[in-house]
Write a structure and sequence with these properties.
The chain is of the alpha/beta class. The chain has 17 helices and 17 strands. The strands form 5 sheets. It has a 5-stranded mixed sheet, sandwiched between helices. Strands 10-14-15-16-17 form a 5-stranded mixed sheet. A hairpin with a 7-residue loop joins strand 8 and strand 9. Helix 5 crosses helix 6, helix 12 packs across helix 15 and helix 15 runs antiparallel to helix 16. The longest helix is centred in the first third of the chain and has 37 residues. It starts with a strand and ends with a helix.
């Protein structure tokens, strides 16, 4: 008779020991003794049977679907080590599930006790045996679940109360757990890799590009994989542990992990400072598909930003590349055109803006401003206060979230202790807000320009690399320029055909007007403060 072996364990840690080998060897030996032909072995790795999800979504669920689809017309034996490998649900559910499966022609067999359950042989003794075993298994799982939940709840309360201890020896890949009592310590070489990932992200690189660079540089991975993958880079970028935060969560047996909303600051040692984390997060938000340009070339750095000054539609990039004229000269025939005009939506701005000319014209005044001398504080001092501001922003955000949660609890329950808790947390949030305001004022005193100046500086440094012959150098340069310009330019509108020009608002402070000089076949620009520009239009 044909036989399918089913193996299950409830946690991934059990799979690292002898659980898999023991179940497999016992089932194979039993099948051989019974003269059954093993067709396949089904494994549910790290799936609990307490909620029964494995019976619908795991390998066991797939087997049931195959039975219902008629894959085993002559019947089949489903062999397990013990009955509780099939389910740890309530006895009634277990019994009905077994009855339905046996009615479909399946013989359920266990190595434990050499028991068989099939259609027509469920006598009273078999029913009592199944119900009793199911009840014992369910009670065992229920008690274990309650003990684990209570233990984790106690740990969460201790952490929320400010106690410092290692909750579990499982740590992020860049940290190690040493000593007694245990403490987290960074692994220097891995912490440096994490910082590199955040620095490249803040510079405008995407996760695919970062993973490729890590592989090209031969940087060792953190796990068993032989190469870096974009998905793992993103996993690191999304992990709050890099700035030392532990986001508490609950996970009931057989269900998904759910974040509680509680955040423990300083649980892990930080490997990325708050300002770098903030800049990388902002870069990720800016880097959407509509900004990515055309593949590796990354031709249009204004993608998603440029708008038609007549109808407000986006300016579409039309790339025809370089072409040679009859006189032997070369001309770039990449253009920006109003999407509304192209689609016949009634826009009168049908001018084709030569991309190479207008890219240089738009970036030139930005670079000019970036290279001007500014009387400012030493960069190290500015950097220190920027990190402090970013740290306080996160602290204030967490404090405010806690205070809001406590307020909702106080309103819902009207209990005095909830009101007291809200008062305490609100005071902490107010204090964090005052400290943040003070830090921001100190930062403004140190620098005479907004943080957009950092973006301008990056654009200026990269100007010479924008059209570099080396593809990698050019791609990296244009990626950084794209990130900087999208963060710097608030508005970029193209007007035409008469008058012909581009207007942009920069850093919330200045308006730059760019016009085309027919005589010199180049662009020229002028600049004024936004307030002056508004006055002139009054």
């Amino acid at each position: 008779m044909d036989c399918v072996i089913y193996i299950r364990w409830s946690s991934s840690e059990q799979g690292k020991g002898s659980t898999l080998e023991r179940q497999r060897e016992d089932c194979r030996r039993h099948a051989l003794e019974q003269g059954w032909t093993v067709l396949e072995e089904l494994v549910d790795d790290g799936i609990s049977a307490f909620k029964g999800e494995h019976a619908s979504t795991g390998s066991l669920g797939g087997f049931v679907q195959d039975v219902e689809a008629g894959r085993y017309p002559d019947g089949v034996v489903l062999l397990v080590e013990k009955l509780d490998r099939l389910s740890r649900q309530e006895p009634g559910r277990v019994f009905m599930w077994m009855m339905n499966l046996t009615e479909a022609g399946v013989i359920l067999a266990t190595v434990d006790g050499a028991r068989r359950y099939s259609k027509g042989n469920f006598d009273m003794a078999s029913i009592i045996e199944v119900v009793v075993k199911a009840q014992l298994s369910h009670e065992e799982s229920e008690k274990k679940s309650q003990r684990l939940s209570a233990a984790w709840a106690s740990k969460r309360r201790r952490l929320n109360a400010g106690e410092k201890f290692v909750m579990t020896r499982r740590a992020p890949a860049w940290l190690d757990v040493v000593g007694s009592p245990p403490v987290f310590i960074p692994i220097p070489e891995r912490a440096a890799i994490v910082r590199r990932i955040f620095e490249e992200t803040a510079a405008g690189f995407g996760k695919q590009h970062i993973a490729k660079n890590l592989n090209l540089d031969g940087v060792p991975t953190f796990g068993r994989s032989g190469a870096w993958h974009a998905s793992y880079v993103q996993k690191i970028l999304r992990n709050p542990a890099v700035v030392g935060e532990l986001h508490l969560a609950r996970k009931a047996r057989g269900s998904k992990r759910q974040v509680t909303g509680d955040v423990v600051l300083g649980y892990y040692p930080s490997v990325v400072d708050a300002d770098l984390h903030k800049r990388a997060s902002a870069a990720m938000r800016e880097r959407t598909r509509r900004y990515t340009g055309r593949g590796r070339r990354l031709v249009n750095v204004f993608s998603g930003l440029a708008r038609c000054g007549t109808c407000g539609c986006k300016m579409t990039f039309r790339g025809k590349g370089r072409k040679q004229r009859a006189d032997g000269s070369w001309v770039n025939e990449d253009y920006l055109v109003c999407d509304g005009y192209q689609r016949g939506m009634g826009c009168s701005n049908g001018f084709h803006f030569n991309y190479a000319i207008w890219e240089e014209g738009i970036l030139a005044p930005i670079i000019h401003e970036a290279l001007q001398d500014h009387d400012s504080a030493p960069q190290s001092e500015v950097r220190e206060i920027e990190i402090e501001v970013a740290r306080l922003e996160r602290l204030w955000d967490v404090a405010k979230t806690r205070a809001d949660s406590a307020l909702r609890l106080a309103v819902e329950t009207n209990r005095s202790e909830a009101k007291t808790l809200w008062t305490e947390l609100a005071t902490i949030a107010d204090k964090a807000g005052d400290e943040l305001d003070d830090a921001r004022e100190r930062l403004l005193e140190l620098v005479h320009a907004p943080s957009a100046e950092e973006h301008q500086r990056r654009v200026g440094e990269l100007w010479s690399s924008l059209n570099h012959e080396d593809e990698k150098t050019r791609f990296e340069a244009r990626s950084k320029v794209m990130a900087a310009t999208h963060a710097l330019i608030d508005r970029l509108t193209f007007h035409g055909p008469d008058p012909l020009g581009v207007e942009m608002e920069v850093a919330g402070e200045r308006v730059i007007s760019i016009h085309y000089d027919e005589v010199n076949r180049s662009t020229e620009w002028s600049m004024c403060d936004i307030d002056d520009e508004r006055t002139s239009h009054a």
